[in-house]
Amino acid sequence: MNRACGGASPQRHRPIRRRQLAQLLSFLCGAAAVALAACGSTPAQTSAATPTPTPTPTVDPTVAAIISAYDQATAAWVAAGADPTTDNDYPGLDEWYTGDELSHEVSVLVLIAQEGLVVGGTDMPHPVVTSVDGSTATVQDCSWNTQYAADKGTTTPASPQPYGWSTASAWENLTVTMLLQTGTWKISDEVSEATPCTPASASP
Fold it and tell me: pTM (2 decimals)?
């Protein structure tokens, strides 16, 4: 390529008179479109389009409060199951459960404690608020449940598993009713559905 048109010359040439050089440059630059900039031509400027920022989704504060309360309730159950007692004293559950559902959860944990068992594993919720009507909300959860019964003081699964439990991890389809009481959303009813579910997020 010719150095005057912007490229590196592979070899040295003999001196060329200025007029001849001008004619040669004109010829070379006319033949090589890619060298127009080096020959004095200014390419047309194309203005880059300004990217439009993606708007941040607005999270409804009520929905956020419901999801937070549901997650807290799940965490409270996992903590209580890891060290159940027989004295009906479960302040974590009292904070996030109410009514018959609270009584049911406490009775299950008391029974587990009476048999010298604990709940191993965990429960990872993927809740979606499907409706809110005043102080009542419905949550659909496809939770990844790895919980099982184990002998107290160990993490070894009890054999056989009581209450129809299983050591196999699985997605659990739950329909949950939550009530707003004294400023806190609490679980008042929880139904385990027989139909399979698809989690709201891509993985457990």
Answer: 0.71
